[in-house]
Amino acid sequence: MMMELIKIEGGRPLSGTVKIDSAKNSTVALIPASILAESPVTLENIPSIVDVERLGEMIEQLGGTYRYDGDDDEDFIIDPTNLQNIPLLEGPVTQLRASYYFLGALLAKFKEVKIGMPGGCYLGPRPIDLHLKGFEALGATIEQEGGTIYMRAERLKGAKIYLDFPSVGATINIMIAASKAEGTTVIENAAKEPEIVDLSNLLNNMGAKIRGAGTDEIRIQGVDRLRGTRHAIIPDRIEAGTYIALAAAAAEEVKIDNIIPTHLDALISKLQEMGVDIEINTDSVTVRGGKALKAVDFKTSIYPGLATDLQQPLVTLVTQSDGVGMVEDTIYSDRFRNCYELNKMGANIRVQGNSAIIQGATPLRGARVMATDLRAGASLVIAALIAEGVTEIGNTYHIDRGYSNIEEKLTNLGAKIWREKE
Ligand code: EPU
């Protein structure tokens, strides 16, 4: 099989403006949630990432349709009118994690669902026990056999659900399922990520009655019917944070535009602690390079803490900072595979369980490396931009799952980046 590589010739200072697209982790929840409507839903500014294509294929497998519209195909229109309850067992369902939102959506719509286990990045074990406990509390019975989950419910009834951990996925899945249950559901210790608020806004515009999204207690009063609507997706705080870290490493002056800076407070203060020159405006930030950076320690946590998804891009920046930085990922047990690849490029990182100790600053040189997962890919792209010589990054499909038009965006900033098959 031919392998595709992203190649980057490093060492060019970047300048210009990069416009951030809509949030992947919102979009992948909004698309499955849209099937609850009885008429078409339009999602504006759809990001051009592979996960969207996969979810579209799943809508088609279910007998619904989707199409792109608008001058730049920026609208994504889902028509769930003829949707049927067809088991999703093979193909796209296994290629991304968010396919599990069809559990909540199909359970709410048909009171029955059969689906293959979701795929996605390996970051250590990623159980879905909290999702399943939530569905059970709403009245579903669950059978699991091999890689298949089968759920059904005579009726879904609102319940009080306390999450042992404020899981993003479980909160979203329970919100989706409960929006058509009888009576009121209360999710306690709910996740507070901005993507939860975005989903709540979409569902409420479809006719749902959800209060409290963005706090740790969400109340969902079930309704019988939901209708189509238009919804503008929030900007991707992780894509934004990635480009901010990238600019801190490689920019002369780069403006990261179309963002909500408050979604990035934890990252921005960490970068300021490192000595990054960053100017914050209403819907953009500007990063100026050329400053000596000092190493920092950091720990990932749930929102509004420092997002685990930005941990790997930040590690690359710490390799360019003076001193020793200690990083702990409290969300995932195995999200440091990029470190072994960075070491091939000249970094000095020691991984111990869910922590990494980074000795900087080390010059980086081009090497052949693998994007072991999506954000590892981002971490390597940043490293490649500042490395001496050419870096070849394999497993590019991970990067394409979450970063839209990455070559175009980086080329516009003055980077030398291209793809090759071999
Ligand atoms: N967890 C459980 N049981 C559950 C659910 C989660 O033990 O039933 C644990 C997980 O194993 C993990 C932690 O809780 O250790 C966090 O999981 P969470 O459910 O919050 O994450 P997720 O919904 O699986 C989403 C994003 C991730 C992001 C996390 C944390 C999507 C599709 N994925 O995952 O995004 O890291 O929230 O913010 O929204 C990425 O974009 O690169 C990515 C991995």
| Bound heterogens, unique | uridine-diphosphate-2(N-acetylglucosaminyl) butyric acid
- Head-to-tail CA distance between termini: 9 Å
In which order are the strands of the major sheet placed?
Answer: 21-22-1-23
Number of helices: 13
- The mean pLDDT is 97
Percent in helix: 25-40%
Largest sheet: 4 strands, mixed
| Poorly predicted parts | none
Strand content: 25-35%
Label the overall shape.
globular
> What Rg, in angstroms, do the CA atoms define?
21 Å
Summarize the structure.
This protein has 422 residues and is α+β, with helices and mostly antiparallel strands. 31% of the residues lie in helices and 26% in strands. Strand 9, helix 5 and strand 10 (184-188) form a beta-alpha-beta unit.
Attribute tags:
single chain; 422 residues; alpha+beta; four-stranded mixed beta sheet; 13 helices; 31% helix; binds uridine-diphosphate-2(N-acetylglucosaminyl) butyric acid
